[in-house]
Amino acid sequence: MIELKSVSQAYGEYAVLKDVNLIIQEEKITALIGANGAGKSTLLNAAANLIPVRSGTVLLDGENVKEIKNIEIAKKIAILKQTQHLNMRITVRELVSFGRYPHSKGRLKKEDERKIQEAIDYMNLEELQNRFIDELSGGQRQRAYIAMILAQDTKYIFLDEPLNNLDIKYSVEMMLILQKMIKDLQKTVIIVLHDINFAAAYADEIVAMKDGRIIREGKAVDMIEKETLAEVFDHEFYITDVGSRKVCVYFQPEMAKEK
C-alpha cells in the first residue's frame, strides 16, 4: 500500500502540494485529474521519492520512503515520465532491458532475460523487438516503454500522461492493456490523465486535484458529476450515462438543439 500523510511540497515559495492525504487502492487504476499546475505530476514524484517532500510522510508498504534505498524503491515502483529523452539509437529489446537495471545493475542474467522476453511477449512486440525506437509509430513506441516498465517487475506502476500524442485507437489500446495488467499481473496503476472521459471509462478510482490539494476522491462512477468537475476545472460540464459509466460532453445541451 502507498499512503501519503499530510504531504506538502514547494518550489521556492510556490506551494505545489498542500497537506495531501491519500491512500492508493491496490490492484486498481487510480486516475489523477485536474487542470495544469494542479500538482498531479508532483504527487507522483513525491510518492516515488523522486523529490523530497517538504513536510509529511510517504509510506511504501508501511515503510517511510525516506528510509528506503532508491534502488529498493525502484524494485517496487516503476515510473514513466511524461517526456522520454533518449540520446542514443537503441532497439526495442535494448530499451526493455533497461527495466531490469534495479535488479541486474546492468549485468543481465538468465532471470533478467526471461523477464525481458515476458514483457516483450505481453506487449506483442516480438516482431518489433529488433527495430530501433525512432523507427516506431507513437503507439508502438509507447508499448515499448510500457514493456520496459513491465520488465522492471514492480508492484506499483506510475504513469504521467501516457496518452499524450497518441490517437484514439492507441489511447484506447493503452488503457485496455493497463486493465489487463491489473487482472493478469495484479499490478497497481496510478495514472495522470487530462481526458476526463478516459478516466471515466477505464479508471477504477479518480483523485481530483486543484491548486495542490485533493478536492475529492472516490470511485470513478461517483466522481463524474457536474459539481465536482466544475470546481476542479472551473468549467461547466454536461454529463450523460453510457451503460454503467458516465461521460462528459464539453458543449452545453442547448447547443445541440440549435442545429
How would you characterize this protein structure?
- It is a single chain.
- With 259 residues, this protein is of the alpha/beta class.
- It contains eleven helices and twelve strands.
- The protein has a six-stranded mixed sheet with strand order 6-7-8-3-9-10, sandwiched between helices. A four-stranded antiparallel sheet has the order 2-1-4-5, covered by helices on one side.
- Helix 5 (110-122) packs antiparallel against helix 6 (138-152).
- The model has no long low-confidence stretch (mean pLDDT 92).
Helix segment tally: 11
β-strand number: 12
* Uncertain stretches: none
Mean pLDDT: 92
Strand content: 25-35%
Rounded to the nearest angstrom, the distance between the terminal CA atoms is 51 Å
> What overall form do the CA principal axes indicate?
globular
Task: State the gist of this model.
This protein has eleven helices and twelve strands.
Summarize the SSE layout with pairings.
Blueprint: E1 2-11, E2 14-24, E3 29-33, H1 40-47, E4 55-60, E5 63-64, H2 70-73, E6 77-80, H3 92-97, H4 101-104, H5 110-122, H6 138-152, E7 156-160, H7 168-185, E8 188-192, H8 196-202, E9 205-210, E10 213-219, H9 220-223, H10 226-233, E11 238-242, E12 245-249, H11 253-258
